[in-house]
Design a protein that fits this description.
α1 (about 25-35) crosses α2 (about 50-65). Among the domains are: about 1-70, no CATH class; about 120-145. A four-stranded mixed sheet has the order 3-2-1-4. The chain is extended and about 70 Å long. The protein has about 160 residues and is an alpha+beta fold. It is built from five helices and four strands, in the order βββαβαααα. The protein has helices spanning about 25-35, 50-65, 70-80, 85-115, 120-145, and strands spanning about 5-10, 15, 20-25, 40-45.
Length: about 160
């Protein structure tokens, strides 16, 4: 088992990865999480473990960008759970629910792979790429016919 990677947070709010010897961003922290790299974030000034705080920042950034995973109602319920009698129990329930969900996803992927002989996610990606190429070919043919077929169609504007 590898050692836990230490990330230092400096007073200027920058994060420093002691293994890679470079400053990193919240996106890099997200990458470490998705790659299942064990790490701890230490506040350089107080020597306090602030890993949870940094992980919450990553979640907040993810929720702010793109398509949020957690609804406003869900977030409000989580906040209310902190004022309840057993917030630890709610946290344990949510953690176990996510673990079960992740395990079920892996099982479904494995079953489809064993039945079909390929990973469903890569199959969908390949299908989408093929459909895009077909659409692009049809679009090129259409524009070529509209232009009388006299010049090649490309992505550059003509003056």
């Amino acid at each position: 088992m590898s050692e836990t990677r230490v990330i230092k947070k400096y007073p200027n709010r920058r994060l420093y990865d002691t293994v890679e010897s470079r400053y990193i961003t919240l996106a890099d922290i997200r990458r470490l999480v998705t790659e299942k790299v064990e790490f701890v974030v230490i506040d350089k000034k107080s020597q306090e473990d602030i890993t949870r705080s940094i992980l919450l920042q990553v979640i907040a950034e993810q929720e702010h960008e793109g398509d949020p995973m957690m609804s406003q109602d869900f977030l409000a319920q989580v906040i209310r759970a902190y004022g309840g009698t057993m917030p630890g129990m709610v946290g344990d329930y949510l953690e176990q629910s996510l673990k079960l969900f992740t395990a079920q996803q892996a099982q479904i992927r494995d079953r489809v792979r064993s039945m079909v002989g390929m990973d469903p996610m890569s199959t969908m990606t390949n299908l989408a790429q093929e459909n895009f190429q077909r659409w692009r070919q049809m679009q090129d043919a259409f524009f070529k016919s509209m232009m009388g077929g006299s010049r090649p169609v490309d992505d550059e504007p003509h003056e």
